Amino acid sequence: MHDEVRVVAGECTATFDGRNKREHRGDVLAIVKPDNTVLVHDADGYQPVAWLTRAESVRLTDGVLDARDGDQHLRVAVHDEHGSNRHPVTRAGVPVGDCPVCGGALVLAHGAVSCLGCGDHYGVPRDAAVLGADCDCGLPLMRVERGDPFELCVDRDCESLDDRVRERFDGVWDCPHCEGALRIIRRGGLLAGCERYPDCDTGFSLPTGLLDGVCDCGLPVFSTPSGRRCLDSGCDAR
Hints:
Order of helices and strands: EEEEEEEEEEEEEHEEEEEE
Number of strands: 19
Helix content: under 10%
Structural class: mainly beta
CATH topology of the largest domain: Protein Yojf, Chain: A
């Protein structure tokens, strides 16, 4: 459910063996982050006096913190320990509501809505805007633009973006290369692909944005964050 950060404070000797060998002794704070990055901080604050990023292995036994990554080795020997502990940590994000399962805070971070309490996790499209309203299930609603604006639950098991887009646009546009219609399918992302596949392999990635007219080639035009474009991103018609 949670990752953890380990901290050790005390009078220590930190020895780093790598491209440059260096040694420091003093009252310091050693931090082991969830990705096995080890930082040793002294009273100066921001810049650590020793560190090893994303170590392959980290062990803390008998008063020695030992971190290794290839030919790099960071050893922190604790001579006089002031304190040590393990603390749970989560990704921090923008608050977007309360979890209907456990009542914990929901946050939006790194392309997902996550609960800080129970750890429930809901991936959302990168362009989605999480709204200040809730679905009937208690989770937040999001707005996603795929030709039309769609407001739906962040939980795809509650409401499916694919189903909503398919209901709106499946078969609406004609294939420019045969007499078939373009069907809405998911293949990596949402595509408008010819219903006569594999005889016709025409397919276009459905862009983020709203419908904004018809291209000279006959396909729809979308108003996207980067400007107006045809459904066919390689189209030269204007």
